[in-house]
Amino acid sequence: DIVLTQYPDSLAVSLGERATLTCKSSQSIFYNVNNKDYLAWYQHKAGQPPRLLIYWATIRDSGVPDRFSGSGSGTDFTLTISSLQAEDVAVYYCQHYYESPRITFGQGTRLEIK
Amino acid sequence: EVQLLESGGGLVQPGGSLRLSCAASGFSLSRFAMSWVRQAPGKGLEWVSGISSSGSNSYYADSVRGRFTISRDTSNNILFLQMNSPRVEDTARYYCVKDRRESPGPPYYFDNWGQGTLVTVSS
Questions:
Q1: Cβ contact A104–B47 (<8 Å)
Q2: CB contact at 8 A, A77 and A57
Q3: What does residue B82 show for φ and ψ, rounded to 5 degrees?
Q4: Which chain B residues are closer than 8 Å to A52 by Cβ?
Q5: Phi, then psi, of A12 in degrees rounded to 5
């Protein structure tokens, strides 16, 4: 199975500053037939179900603020929050679907306010 | 508005059985793949099982294959997860999740999640 490793495990960022979260795959999840990276990002706040933020590595889901952006390709991916807001405190997970239905998630990055 | 409401969680003994249900509204189960994703206490997310939009194909993580069965009732728009011979390590909150894509294939990524139902496996 493909293993996703997220860095760092936890991150503290000041309000208004940029937060950069990384997800590294054990093998490429880019499919050259359709030129797509099979990666999604989720936000999981305490006491709530997870929320889809990004799919196909870079596409923001409907209603997701534009301060959230996804980038990367192949094995290395980044979720960037351009200007951290208090409501962004959460655990963030990456998830691949390259070998669907053998879907796996990263272990998560906990984001806090400094 | 899409809503997913899980039920059926609780305390079950190892080797027992439990059936989880997920009542879906705002869309038809016959149009979207559905999955169950779980989160053990203090742990991350784990995909457990999925079913294609046609219902013809069901999929399982290695950790539950042969013990859990996913199914659905399209007449009532309800998704199920039958948990047989549960183990202590199956203790988790189980989320019912809807695929983002309207596609006949396997699940990919999930745009709607229920609140989850808590399953505790303990003697």
A1: yes
A2: yes
A3: -85, 120
A4: 100, 109-111
A5: -120, 125
- Spatial contact of A93 and A41, defined as CB atoms under 8 Å apart: yes
Q: Are A75 and A92 in contact (CB under 8 A)?
A: no
Structure tokens at B10: 């609780």
The alpha carbon of residue B12 is apart from the nearest alpha carbon of chain A, in Å, by 23
Q: Which amino acid is at A10?
A: S
Q: Which amino acid is residue B44, in one-letter code?
A: G
Terminal CA-CA length for chain B: 40
Alpha helices in chain B (DSSP H): none
Question: What's the length of chain A?
Answer: 114
The pLDDT tens digits for A30-70 are 999 999 999 999 999 999 999 999 999 999 999 999 999 99
